[in-house]
Specification:
This protein is mainly alpha-helical and 123 residues long. It contains one helix and no strands. The radius of gyration is 52 Å and the shape is rod-shaped.
């Protein structure tokens, strides 16, 4: 009777040990899964950080290119204004020259008329 009770106790203890081992194995597997998940998250964070740095580098490069283009555009606008001013000066000078030519032609005509008048008077 005592032996049976002792055997029964040993069986129960053995079942408890098996159950505990099974629970321990399950918890170890869950811990491993959590570790794998943490590793994946850290890996993704590193990739995102690298991508962020790469994107920031590309943005900085594009910002520099944009500044260069803005300066070129500003230079072109200034050149257009300068050319416009130069064109206005040339047009004003052309108008002035044209008026001078017209005055000279009028003077020549008057001189020619006077010369004809003198020729008639002499002749």
């Amino acid at each position: 009777s005592n032996v049976q009770a002792s055997q029964k106790e040993q069986e129960q203890d053995s079942e408890k040990v098996q159950k505990l081992k099974s629970e321990l194995k399950e918890k170890d597997e869950r811990i491993s899964a959590y570790h794998r998940q943490i590793d994946r998250i850290q890996e993704n964070n590193e990739k995102e950080k690298e991508n962020g740095l790469r994107i920031r580098g590309e943005k900085d490069k594009l910002d520099i290119e944009l500044d260069v283009i803005k300066k070129q555009v500003q230079g072109m606008k200034e050149e257009i204004l300068r050319i416009g001013d130069e064109k206005s000066r040339i047009q004003a000078k052309n108008t002035e020259n044209q008026l001078s030519i017209e005055r000279m032609n009028e003077q020549r005509k008057r001189d020619a008329d006077k010369e004809q008048q003198l020729q008639r008077e002499i002749g």
